[in-house]
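Illustration: Polynucleotide kinase.
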Amino acid sequence: MTGNSNLNLVAARGGWIGVDLDGTLAEYGTWRGVGHIGAPVPAMLARVKRWRAAGVEVRIFTARAGDAECLPAIQEWCQTHVGEVLPVTATKDYQMVELWDDRAVQVLANTGQRADGQEDML
Ligand SMILES: [Mg+2]
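Result:
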């Protein structure tokens, strides 16, 4: 996806971009409890803000979504750093057009081949 025209297309079609929290949008080292979320990762935060300014829906895509106790801290973190509360989910749907995640391994569509060129561990 390059340029705002594509982003506008995503927005117009009702698409959304999923952004992982720990290790992607926020710094993560070790689990410190539901109330702790790390400092923003500047490059990722800037990207999310650009997308939002272009009208693209961004959802925080995190395993924390499965724990209702985690939601207040995520919402507060978003309000403080993103400037708005973003939806929180751990569920894909047909409108999800991209997923940004520090643990994801991208594969080239329909090939089973890694996009990063790394060797598999096993
Ligand atoms: Mg992560």
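Reading the tokens back as a structure: Residues 20 and 61 are 5 Å apart (CA to CA).
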